Each structure stands twice: as C-alpha cells, then as structure tokens.
Amino acid sequence: MVNALTFDIEEYFHAEAFAGVVRPEQWPTLESRVVGATERLLELLAEHASVATFFVLGWVAERHGALVRAIHRGGHELACHGYGHQMITRQSRAEFGEDVRRAKSAIEDAAGAAVIGYRAPTFSVVRETLWSLEVLAKAGFRYDSSIFPIVHDRYGIPDAARFPHRLPAGPGVEISEFPLSTVARRGWRFPVAGGGYFRLLPYGVTRRAVRHLNEREGQPAIVYLHPWEIDPDQPRLPVGRLTQFRHSVNTHTTEWKIRRLLRDFRVGPVRDVLAGSGVLVAGEAA
Questions:
Q1: What value does the mean pLDDT of the chain take?
Q2: What pLDDT sits at residue 226?
Q3: In sequence order, which residues have a C-beta less than 8 Å from that of residue 136 and are 6 or more positions away?
Q4: Does the pTM exceed 0.90?
Q5: I want to staple 133 with a disulfide (CB 3.0 to 4.6 A). Which of 164, 169, 253, 260 is the partner?
C-alpha cells in the first residue's frame, strides 16, 4: 500500500508556538532557514527514489521561487499551506478567501503548475470553521488535508471520519478530505505519524501504527513533517520551556527516522493516494 508523505514548507518562526512572541512584520528580519532544510528533504527523497506532497506557505513561495521550482522539478506535488500561516479560527470568511487566493497564485506562478491541495496552518479546519471547505472548493482546490480527528488543545474534530472520504462543502459542492492519521483503541483515538508525535515517540511506534493502518484496517496513512523538524541548529526564540520542548524535541533524530520510514514503506503524494483510493475522482487529480 502507498502511504501519503507530506511536508509543510514554512520557516521555524512560522510555527504556532511562536505566534505570541514573533509578529508577522518581524518575519523578514529573522534568519531564514527554510531553503537549506527543504533542500535536505529533497536530497533524502531522491536518495530513496520517493516523491511526496509539499504544502508550501505562500509567504515562502513569494520569497523563494527557486525552491518551489526545485520541488516541482523533483516530481513532487505542490500544494498550499495558506499565505501567512494564520489559523482559520482567527480569520473572517473574506480574509481566509484572500489568504488562500494569494497563496495559490504565488505557488502556481513560481512553479508554473496547478495546485489542487490545501492544508490549514495548525490543522485549523475545526467544527467552527467547516465553512472554509466551501471557500476552498470555490477557489479551485480539489482536496483538503487539515482535519485531525482527535481531541487537542489547538485543533481537532474528535468524531470526524478517520480515513480519506468526500465531504460536502456547500450547496451542491464536495471536496475530498484526507484526515491526519490516528489509531483507535478502546474508544480513544491516538495521533500517529507526524510532527511532534513522529519526533517524540520511538520510531518503532510509528512503524507499528502505519502497519496497523495498512494491514489491519486496509487504509493508507498520512505522514506530515516540517523542514524545521530536521534542523536542530535553528535559532531559539523566547518562549517557555514546555513550548520550546514541544517545538524542538528530538529534531536531531528526525532525519534518521525519515530514512527508516522511506525504507520500510511505499510513499507518494496525497494527490496520487487519493486517486488510487477512488476518493479523488477522474479529472480532479490533473
């Protein structure tokens, strides 16, 4: 089975953990590290003849067009992570529409390729922002990968479907959804295969979880990571110990874990996995 491998392409200072200490107008003054870390990810994928989906922040695409083109040349899928890494919960419908329009245009202009996929910053498609799916569909997006079917302090729709499916996105409109991966145990859902969970847990836990999804439930997993998660030398920002721990724990082992994942499993872009599952209908994956 092919599992979806995804990367959210943003700077370390874009992480929601730093939203309270770094203002958007300060971003251009901070050290940029996204190019070097993303190029390292591209090298890892090339070494293992693997392709993935890169959800690129529009802010990054405008400043690093060559990086966007390098991702595209590598045969990877380009998708959208919004423009300014603002959670949808902090935007009006009009603001969100402008954010995704600007981001989609920036990525497509840089690469000369169509963008059909979206992932919200901090998985902020929650129950209160399901209206965003209609905005996405009308903007030309064919799939979303933002819903985390868990309980969490920042995001999540605990009773949402766990596997790829079609969702109503307004009157007469549908969109494909690839929820972030979970394993269900005794009525609880446990997040697996991405971000802080990927970094904090031993790799063996991730491997068992992905195998369980593939072999026991017959479903593809989706793995998500950020370039800053393989960058243990990134600058430290003034946040508390717990926040810093959540952001940087085990960044020195993430690259090794990615290598193991690429050896142990077949991976591919979200677009292809959804099409193979019959969730993304003919013509939408183009």
A1: 95
A2: 98
A3: 100, 118, 144, 169, 175
A4: yes
A5: 169
